[in-house]
């Protein structure tokens, strides 16, 4: 069935069809919205699988376990804690489940997951870096992010991990992160991308490394400050009781395959043309007005074209 899961009438119709063996919830809620629906989910299933995120964890000097401190519990930044940013919202929603008085829930905490059509470079989606690369433009990244360790997990492996806990009594009332055993510096991930792209296209991609991420992001971003600038290495032994983590795909091999598959059959989400113009300014990819105007043919809509020109000529900066 397809419908709007934020629409109470549709949600009640689906939940009321039967008492479900399992509900796997991929939705992203505000804390306020989750408070309105969690009791319905718990009362209509034997097992409610809540997709949280490993972004909930605070910075850690060693491998992260499911019991490692969370940002919500240890962060001292009052301004950040006053928000309902994704990592905080997920942690608060975990707390709601734990305080529900029921145990028919399982919390899943994936981390950065990739596939043929989801290829991130730190917080940048493929539309922000791979699109530039395949257009012959310069990719922009930063030295502070390139030096940080990360876990990068193939989507199929995360899917198998989620499926493996469904119907397992031992998983009730527990939290699991589903992550690759490997960890790599973001610089290594970037180089893996560049090598795979060069192999597919025959062209060596161009890369500009700024000193700090704020320079090319145009300001401070909580997702970077409270996640991507942390070293992320995970102890995934807990989920191993349900799925053999040794069968997870090696990161570099899977990334090579995904780049190949995408270039063979590219599909793009909408491009942020203001941010694209900002990067053109940083890299010199719009060395002249002629070059700047030549890019307009790829931009849909007069408003997007105007914003691209305003940012590209330095008359305004993109909002972040």
Description:
The structure is a single chain. This protein has 320 residues and is an alpha/beta fold. The protein has two domains: 262 residues, 3-Layer(aba) Sandwich (Rossmann fold), CATH 3.40.50.720; 51 residues. The strands form four sheets. The chain has a four-stranded parallel beta sheet with strand order 1-2-3-8, covered by helices on one side. The longest helix has 16 residues. It starts with 7 loop residues before the first helix and ends in an 8-residue tail after the last helix. The mean pLDDT is 93.
How far the N terminus sits from the C terminus, by CA atoms, comes to 36 Å
Q: In the CATH hierarchy, what is the superfamily of the largest domain?
A: NAD(P)-binding Rossmann-like Domain
Q: In one word, what is the shape?
A: globular
Per CATH, what is the topology of the largest domain?
Answer: Rossmann fold
Order of SSEs, N→C? HEHEHHHEEHEHEEHEEHEHHHHHH
Given this structure, which CATH class of the largest domain is correct?
Alpha Beta
Helix content: 40-55%
The largest sheet is: 4 strands, parallel
Rounded radius of gyration (Å)? 21 Å
When the domains are counted, the total is 2
Share in β-strands: 5-15%
- Architecture (CATH level 2) name of the largest domain: 3-Layer(aba) Sandwich
Average of the residue pLDDT scores: 93
Task: Note the quaternary state here.
Answer: single chain
Biggest sheet strand order reads 1-2-3-8
Q: Which structural class is indicated by helix and strand composition? A: alpha/beta
Give me the count of strands: 10
Instruction: Extract low-pLDDT stretches.
Output: none
Number of helices: 15
